[in-house]
Specification:
Layout (H helix, E strand, L loop, with lengths): L10 E7 L6 H9 L6 E8 L5 H6 L6 E5 L4 H10 L5 E4 L5 E2 L3 H11 L3 E12 L5 E4 L7 H7 L8 E4 H7 L10 H11 L3 E14 L11 H15 L5 H21 L3 H14 L7 H11 L14 H20 L8 H18 L3 H14 L1 H4 L2 H30 L1
Helix pairs in contact: 7-8, 8-9, 9-10, 9-11, 10-12, 11-13, 13-14
């Protein structure tokens, strides 16, 4: 660590905030308490109308405070960048935090590789509601082009960008009100930015019930960003990859509308998913994703939450049936409703089994087999079927046999 009265900052940590008086102080404190001293903290109040301005007054002199009319998170981040001086920049959402060594760890990695313009780190996810936490890592850099097509590799607070690369691509796209960070990573990658990563956890992502990720209706932003990325990839964006990417976006959107009690919107979105991938609902992995996004506690989705499914089973099957019917009017190839429900039942069986609900797991598995026995009894599934049905039955048989032998003695 270096000591100096005045220094040019190595890392600028930029915190956009809008009406978040309950959490912003934690974010600012985590940014100020970095082991690296050459750090500047810039907070952009994006037109808050609650007590946020009063909270920010406590940090005047220790952090730069910028106030502007409400223009959205991307505009707030860009405004903070324009007033920053750091060689590297990190964007920290007001309800998240960074660990004390974030700036030191990430800037050291970028100093070691002068060709790298973007550094991803691991992050800790903490549930505000129940205190549970889990560790997540950025994806391997192999097949990174494909990964960026299908998923966002990291939250902003576990990512640091070299200043000249951020300037080169023009910063965040201010027309996007969702997926703006994902869009930024995509544009950096398309521009040829070299990426490095570390397994060290540098960010703390806090999940909340009022999280923006709970809300449906942002599909246009996601599709628009994907359109740009696919166009930039050219021949690298294979038909199969595009099909998977677009269908997954529409699948998630329809599931959120189902959870929100808007079946007509859900049907339209799932029908669009089917237009991109007619077999999407016949795969167990699809339903695993649906179970996560349909969970009333999403994005928490912690253990034992699968029990809510009995109340939503009818709604999900109804949306599925109508989506298939709508899709059948525009194309010949449509999935089998029966096989799709069998795949759903099989996914439920796996989910309940992993959560320790053996009886419910067997119930859903038997329901799946009755709907589509030939499809589910194939080689990929037989081990799981043996584990939760045949295995326990064989163990029970031998226990009874042993008890009889002991009784006869």
């Amino acid at each position: 660590m270096r000591n100096s009265v005045w220094h040019v900052p190595t890392v600028s940590i930029i915190i956009p905030v809008y009406n978040d008086e309950a959490h912003v102080a934690d974010a600012i404190d985590s940014a100020l308490n970095q082991t690296l001293k050459e750090v500047e903290v810039i907070v952009v109040d994006d037109g808050s109308t609650d007590g946020t301005p009063d909270v920010l007054k406590r940090y005047e002199g220790r952090a730069k405070i910028i106030r502007q009319e409400n223009a959205g998170v991307s505009a707030a981040r860009n405004a903070g960048f324009k007033d920053s001086c750091g060689k590297y920049v990190c964007f920290l959402d007001s309800d998240d935090m960074v660990v004390p060594k974030m700036a030191e760890t990430m800037s050291d990695l970028l100093e070691e590789d002068q060709e790298a313009g973007l550094c991803f780190g691991a992050w800790q996810v903490t549930d505000v509601k129940d205190g549970t936490s889990s560790r997540h890592t950025a994806p391997p850099l192999e097949d990174f082009t494909e990964y960026l097509t299908l998923g966002c590799p990291s939250p902003p607070n576990s990512t640091v960008i070299r200043r000249n690369w951020f300037e080169k691509i023009g910063g965040f796209d201010e027309t996007l009100r969702s997926c703006d960070d994902w869009d930024l990573w995509r544009r950096l990658w398309l521009a040829g930015c070299k990426v490095v990563r570390t397994e060290e956890a540098v960010g703390i992502f806090r999940r909340r019930e009022d999280s923006k990720s709970r809300n449906p209706g942002s599909i246009d932003y996601y599709v628009g960003s994907l359109d740009k990325y696919v166009s930039g990839l050219g021949a690298r964006a294979t038909a199969a990859l595009q099909s998977k990417a677009y269908s997954t976006l529409w699948l998630k959107d329809g599931t959120k509308w189902t959870r929100a009690g808007e079946p007509s919107r859900a049907i339209d979105s799932w029908a669009e998913a089917l237009n991109h991938d007619p077999q999407i609902f016949e795969r167990g992995a699809t339903w695993g994703l649906v179970l996560r996004y349909a969970d009333p506690s999403f994005p928490h989705s912690t253990k034992h939450t699968r029990l809510w499914f009995a109340q939503m089973d009818h709604s999900i099957r109804s949306v599925l049936k109508e989506s298939i019917a709508q899709c059948s009017r525009t194309r010949k190839e449509v999935p089998s409703y029966r096989r799709a429900v069998a795949a759903l039942r099989f996914a439920l069986s796996i989910a309940f089994f992993r959560d320790g609900f053996g009886w419910q797991a067997r119930r859903w598995l038997l329901a799946a087999i009755m709907l589509s026995p030939l499809r589910l009894l194939g080689r990929p599934n037989w081990r799981f079927i043996f584990k939760i049905i045949l295995g326990p039955m064989i163990c029970m048989f031998f226990r009874r046999l042993e008890s009889k032998e002991a009784g006869s003695e």
